[in-house]
Structure prediction request, 264 residues.
Amino acid sequence: MANAAAALVATARLLLDGALDLLYPPRCLVCGDFGPLYLCAACVSEFEAVQSPICLRCGAEAEPRAGPEERVARLCPWCLAGRAFAFVAARGAHAYTGVVRAAIHRLKYDRRRRLAEPLALTMLSTLSRVPFAGRDFVLVPVPLHPSKLRLRGFNQAELLAGTLAEQTGMPLELHAVRRVRATEPQALLKGRHRFANVEDAFEGVPGALAGMDILLIDDVVTTLATANACSRALLKAGAQSIHVLALARGGRGLPGDAAARPQE
Ligand SMILES: [Zn+2]
Ligand SMILES: [Zn+2]
Prediction:
């Protein structure tokens, strides 16, 4: 009953957003400046890059704990120590901080879904520069559990992936993997517990992506626990390989790192 009421409120808010857009000219949904864009150039210019050297594997800042050899290897200490992930590599278009963090909060918690498209466009230049650029991927957004989808009204990762598909011509696959278990918000948990929390939360559709190379899309990654669990389900269902691209990369990828705690 509570869920149904929340879903109704979410729908009403979406309708209200639409009505307000008809009455008022567009403005930046992050800073409020009037202009033709829902995300203004000034806000985008303040998005911060993940500082290099960037770990080739997990996309975290490889500094500051890496020694000279690690810098050459371009791996963070944890990946250098052989930390196992189901995906090949992960990258974030921006560091999860400052204005991009505010924009993601507006998108998800204030449900300003119009921010998804301009935010996705900021991922394109990263996609053209990553070590896995130029490959033919099938785009798969990290799915939300149906109960969360009802509450929010949309899946932000799906909106991002949709724009990326339009822009790159890569196919979009929305039905190959499902979230079968509702999990505790990752934000409430520390590193290792995040991995246990999302274990077996996903289920792939056998054969749906057989032999295909997947680019998994999410809004924020930090410990990569969610991306890892989703990747495992996709591989189990027959996918050939998984890479991960997120709008923002939080923390330094270290288990237990509480520097940035995005909510899912
Ligand atoms: Zn702005
Ligand atoms: Zn790493």
